[in-house]
Specification:
Elements lengths: L1 H28 L5 H9 L13 H11 L10 H12 L9 E5 L20 H5 L17 H5 L5 E4 L2 E4 L9 H5 L5 E5 L4 E3 L7 H7 L9 H5 L5 E4 L2 E4 L9 H5 L5 E3 L5
Antiparallel strand pairs: 1-4, 2-3, 5-8, 6-7
Helix pairs in contact: 2-3, 2-4
Length: 266
């Protein structure tokens, strides 16, 4: 009996000592979390939309405390959340920049040429796997509504074969931009009104053949702009919103209608 009990007692003693050592070590080497992380995390809406640039609200809360991330990156939370977070950090509250989502494409049914009839799964992600989609322009809107599916506010519908974003409903949360396989949804300040509605870097000659509304890189807009707010980079016009005054000269000069006012229709 002693031959059985003695080893059992020894093993039990070793286990107890090991447990005590681990407990002591965990206390000594424990990484104490800054209590502000939990406080900030509690203020965030936990939509986990990624609009702040982080994987989720908890990651964003940690980044604010540990990496000095800005306190006003949570668009779904709005200015009230930004103010609460700033107060926890002992900072002056900064408003969230007001932005709107914009579709950088006008390749609707009347403008973009089709290369085949698609009969597969009606998602943009699935259609893109079939030679980039049914349109000759593989940079444009595929039009099956992956963006509309994820929009929590019903701000996006499919009109005439491409996405249509309603400014009054959009809060620029960024979910639509992540869902678009061609990365066509971008954001611009709400105080500005002109957008380049094309994403194709193809040469103008190619664009003319496959989309009536595409940017052909002719640089007419660049030459006409008095404020140097628009330049053509890799065959595509780009607007610098810090310089743009909203005069509309670029829109009026564009021979294909690739530059639009936000009030223009598809």
């Amino acid at each position: 009996m002693e031959q059985i009990l003695l080893p059992a007692v020894i093993f039990a003693g070793i286990g107890l000592i090991a447990a005590l050592l681990l407990t002591v070590a965990s206390g000594i080497f424990a990484v104490k979390e800054d209590p502000r992380v939990q406080k900030i995390d509690a203020e965030l809406p936990h939509a986990n939309c990624g609009a702040c640039g982080y994987a989720g609200c908890s990651e964003y809360a940690a980044a604010i405390v540990k990496e000095n991330a800005l306190c006003n990156l949570c668009k779904p939370g709005g200015n009230d959340t930004a103010a609460a977070v700033a107060e926890i950090m002992g900072q002056e509250a900064q408003p969230i920049p007001s932005e709107i989502a914009v579709l950088a494409c006008r390749g609707n049914c009347n403008a973009a040429a089709e290369k085949y009839a698609y009969h597969g799964i009606h998602t943009c992600k699935a259609a893109k796997k079939m030679f980039g989609g049914s349109k000759f322009c593989t940079y444009g809107c595929i039009g099956y509504g992956d963006c509309a599916e994820v929009c929590p506010h019903g701000a996006i519908t499919i009109q005439d074969g491409i996405a249509d974003i309603q400014p009054g409903l959009c809060d620029a949360c960024g979910l639509c931009a992540k869902a678009c396989p061609n990365r066509l949804i971008r954001f611009r300040p709400t105080g500005k009104h002109f957008d380049v509605r094309c994403s194709s870097p193809s040469a103008g000659k190619t664009v003319r053949l496959i989309c009536k509304n595409g940017c052909i890189g002719c640089k007419v807009c660049e030459r006409k702009c008095l404020h140097r707010a628009i330049t053509v980079v890799q065959n595509l016009a780009v607007i610098d919103y810090d310089k743009c005054t909203g005069c509309g000269v670029c829109r009026d000069a564009c021979p294909t209608g690739a530059i639009c006012c936000c009030e223009d229709t598809n």
